[in-house]
Amino acid sequence: MNGDIKRIFIDTVTTYNYSDKVVDDDVLKELYELTKWSPTSFNCSPLRLVFLKSQEAKDRIDPYLMDSNKLSVKKAPICAIIGMDIKFFIDLPKNFKAEDAKVFFENNEELAHSTAFRNSSLQAGYFLKAVNALGLDAGPMSGFDNKGVDDEFFKDTSIRSNFLCTLGYGIEPKGHPRGARYKFDEVAKII
C-alpha cells in the first residue's frame, strides 16, 4: 500500500494532543481549496467553516461545549465549526448550470435541510482527509449545544452548525489506541 494512502486513511486517529506549532492561515486556506472539490448532489456546496484560532474566539464557544470537550478545544491550536447553509439553493443557478435545481428546494424546507446536512457532511469527509493530507491532525466532535453555537456565531443567517473539529499538529499520544473496525462481510454485500 502506498505510504501516503496509509498515512491519510489508516494511520489517522481522533487527536486530543497537539503541539504548540501555529497553524498558518495559508494552511487553512489550502485546506479549504482541497475541500471544495468534494462531490455533492447538484454541486450544492452547503459547507461553511469558521476557524476559531484566538483565545477570545475559543472563549465564545466554551459555554456551549460539554465539559468533556472544553479542555480539548482549549488545548487545540484551532477549533473549526463545521457548518451548513440551509439556504444553499440560492446559489444553485451559479453552482449548477445543468438545470434549474433551485426549484426543488426553495419551497421545501425539510428537503433543503436534509440535503444541506447530507452534503455538508460529504464535504466534511473531504475536509478531514484534506487535514491529514496537509500533515495536520483532527479531533471531530459532537457534544455541544448546536442552538447556542448557532446563536453565537451564525445569528440572523441561514447557517447552522453540524459538528466541531479541533485541528493542529498532533503529538504522541495523539489519542486513544486504534479501535476495532468491521470486516467487509460484516457490513457490506455485493449483489
Word description of this protein:
By secondary structure, the protein is an alpha+beta fold. 42% of the residues lie in helices and 15% in strands. It has helices at 3-10, 25-35, 55-61, 67-75, 92-95, 102-105, 109-133, 146-153, 184-187; strands at residues 47-52, 78-85, 137-141, 159-168. α1 packs across α7 (109-133) and α2 crosses α7. It is globular and about 50 Å long. The two termini are 27 Å apart.
Labels describing this entry:
191 residues, alpha+beta, 4-stranded antiparallel sheet, 9 helices, 4 strands, globular
Write the layout of secondary structure elements.
Layout lengths: L2 H8 L14 H11 L11 E6 L2 H7 L5 H9 L2 E8 L6 H4 L6 H4 L3 H25 L3 E5 L4 H8 L5 E10 L15 H4 L4
Helix pairs in contact: 1-7, 2-7
Q: What is the H-and-E element order?
A: HHEHHEHHHEHEH
Flag low-confidence runs: none
Mean pLDDT metric:
96
Main-sheet strand order equals: 1-2-4-3
The structural class is: alpha+beta
Shape label: globular
Helix content: 40-55%
Q: How many helical elements?
A: 9
- Report the biggest beta sheet as strand number plus sense, adding barrel if it closes: 4 strands, antiparallel
Query: Would you report the number of β strands?
Result: 4
In terms of DSSP E residues, the strand content is: 15-25%
Cα gyration radius (Å): 18 Å
Head-to-tail CA distance between termini:
27 Å
